[in-house]
Amino acid sequence: MLNNYFLSVLFAMAVVAGYAQAPDLPTYNHYYVEPYFYNPAFMAAKDRAELNLIYRQQWAGLEGAPVFSQMSFIYPISRKLATGVNIYNNKRGLLTTTSAQASLSYAVGLGDEAFLSFGMSGGVGRTSINLDEAGNTNDPALSRALDKSFFAEGQAGFNLQIRRLSIGFSIPQLFRQNTISSESFQKIAFNAFNTTISSVSYKFDLGPDFRLQPLLLYRTMQYNTSRKAEFEGYGTLYYKDFLWVGGLYRPDYGASAYLGLQINKTFQFGYSYEFGTKQVAQLTNNTHEFRLGIKIGKQRVNRHKEIVSRPEEPQEPEVNEPVESEKEVIVKEEPKPEPEKEEVKVVTPVEIQEEKKQEPVEPKEIVVVPDSKSITPVPVHEDVQVLPAQVNDNPDELKKGTYLIVGVFSDSQNAIKYSTQMLYAGYKTNIGYNSVKKLHYVYILTENDLEVAKKQRDNLRKITRFQFKDTWILIVE
After folding, report:
1. CATH assignment at residue 224
2. Integer Cα distance of 203 and 304 in angstroms
3. Among 456, 460, 406, 457, residue whose Cα is nearest residue 429
4. Over 90: is that where the pLDDT of 72 sits?
5. Mean pLDDT estimate for the chain
6. Are residues 371 and 285 in the same domain?
7. Given a cut of 50, is residue 6 above it in pLDDT?
8. For residue 101, what are the contacts with CB-CB under 8 A and spacing of at least 6?
9. pLDDT at 30 over 90
10. How many domains are contained in the chain?
11. Which of 263, 296, 329 is the last residue in one of the domains?
């Protein structure tokens, strides 16, 4: 007669494994931050070597309940190429599956704001059964059928990244796997599209410090002659990229809550608590999942190295040599100044705020601005600039309003690259042009009320990233 342990094992196997030929793909809750386990194409987004460890104890307290542990290592070789290793162990009841795969991903740039990456993995796995824990099971035929079975492993997928939009698709099991097999190494047979995983996510700005990332995951699975499809929904709220909380819902597993912490530049910690469905909650405790991410070494590649926020060594005069602060430029009374007389270069926010030491600065200064009819002195605060609105056919021309400026460039491509770099970091900016100054202004927000704009400017200056500490105000009137 079967003992109580064997009964609990059968329950766990029935829920998790299903039929013998059902796809045996482990489930985990940290896909939102570590999708590589399902889709190797996501390796292309990494710029440093990275080690990830995941441990999942399902239905804690139930003897023989599933335990999943996984380790992945990602190593970027160049801006386009990355390689990795993925190893996992999935124990559920008497069955234990161990797998090891090597991966390779390749990224193709689609302009300054998008890229398409492809990834493939290949390796071998083994499924074994611990008959000693099942009690008196001395049937030789059963032992031969369930002792151990090796099988081929493979994955393929792609990921399309457009600004903050990510669209992924993968086949996490390229080859057919039989949980129960009498063969020492199962014949290699392609699984085609029996199991697929699709995902889409987008990062929204909720202010200078908060971002919200919803993620929708859709998976299909083939169970013998039937096919099953299900959705999973994630929602993650980030605070300054070092603390995040969120939740997810999975129909067969119930709701989960999770949190994460960026401890420093090297270590990242995550925890997930799965409440489970009502049926599972009546039988056992809930599920716990832990994740540890470790970044190793220095940044190996710069995925966006052409996106420059602070030019340093002069390479091209048009790009790197600074011009005088706008506050120090006196506009001549000429309807159209000669282009060769106005030496326009890239102006960073730091240079806009920088003042020459030999020239005294009054608490309030007069900024001379051009006007279609006359030159009118406008008294403004020392870090507030005023320009007249221009009416023309340029769709990028700055309209009337108050802008919080974080970057100024003479070349439109440099402005786009700088704006894109901030976008990858989670800050949405826009670009406007002034045809009088012939400069492109990168601004993070607009505000009609000057006093409110000053408060927003002061809040942005508390952020140490990029040039936010030098944020200034531009008034177009």
Report:
1. 2.40.160.40
2. 18
3. 406
4. yes
5. 75
6. no
7. no
8. 85, 86, 87, 121, 122, 123, 153, 154, 155
9. yes
10. 2
11. 296
Range of the domain at 418: 317-476
Give the range among 61-75, 178-192, 250-264, 458-472 with minimum mean pLDDT.
Answer: 178-192
Residues 285 and 323 in one domain: no
pLDDT tens track for 340-358: 544 444 444 444 444 444 4
88-105 residue pLDDT tens: 999 987 888 999 999 999
Domain boundary among 296, 328, 360: 296
| pTM value > 0.90 | no
